[in-house]
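Comment thread on ticket #2218

A.B. wrote:
> Attaching the input chain for the structure job we discussed in standup.
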Amino acid sequence: MLMIIFYHFNCAIERIIGQEFTIMARYNLAAAMGVSLFFILSGASLSYATSTEFSLASFYHKRFISIFPLFWATYIAIVFSHVVVFQQSLFHDLQRWTFLLTIIGLDGFLLYLSPNYYLIGEWFLGCILIFYVIFPLIKYLFHKNKHLLIIGSLLLCLLLEHFYSLNMPLLRFPPFRVFEFIFGMYISSYLAKNKYSRTTTALTMLGLIIIILYGTNVLATNILFGCISFIFLTEIAKYCPLFLRNNFIRFLSKYSFAAFLIHHITLTVIINYAKDALTSQISIFLLFSLILLIIYLAAFLIYNLVAYLLRTPIAFRW
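C.D. wrote:
> Ran it. Output below, let me know if you need it in another format.
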């Protein structure tokens, strides 16, 4: 989540103030890695959570509770703050039926088709919702032959990269991103059996070879780059102090979905208000730190409010 915030912070800084004030010149790498890790972690955590027992009704109920109450509450809070607090008009000349896309969380995902009531989250929320819908099928195929499934999904990526012709950007096309989701499940299965080291080495070498051969194409610079980053970060995590994993990282993970929902609008509003005071790189770093603090404070408040109203903790499998 931090990489997604970092990317959109730099986007906003470049748009509002100027490119020379961005923290990192090639901040697009943060977006590529962040989105890829989002899919991989979602597949890994879901695979782990459903490894012992799996009920179709329970699965869909938990996914609904973990996403939509928080999504709807955050949307209402953002609309209220803009209309009542800031007295701003948000929507103009939109077709009313498109609000249905917001209700089901697909507004950002389908924004490329036509304007709608999209305000919070990102396009890949809609993509992960589609993966959740078809997860029972993916899980069934995974248990039949996980090796064949991951090879098949990678071959699908290669075919789509060469023959794709739809209007939706390729990087947002669910069949193109399903490899990362399955990759997360695949790695998770080896973590559970403590056979991770050999698998790590083999997959890392394979990914590096493909990246070298394919150079700067979409598959290499986005999906495989994210997969190798996940392997690397997983290895690094082994050496993190226990208190850091049990407190700081767990805190970031718990409130990451709420932060994901509000970060875009929050940082844009703050940067617009603070732009005249941003005269150096130090001030940019300080503002970024402040924005992170505000985003996670707001995420903490809205998460716990929704959890209190539901009388149950919200466990988004991020």
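A.B. wrote:
> Thanks. Noting for the ticket: The mean pLDDT is 84.
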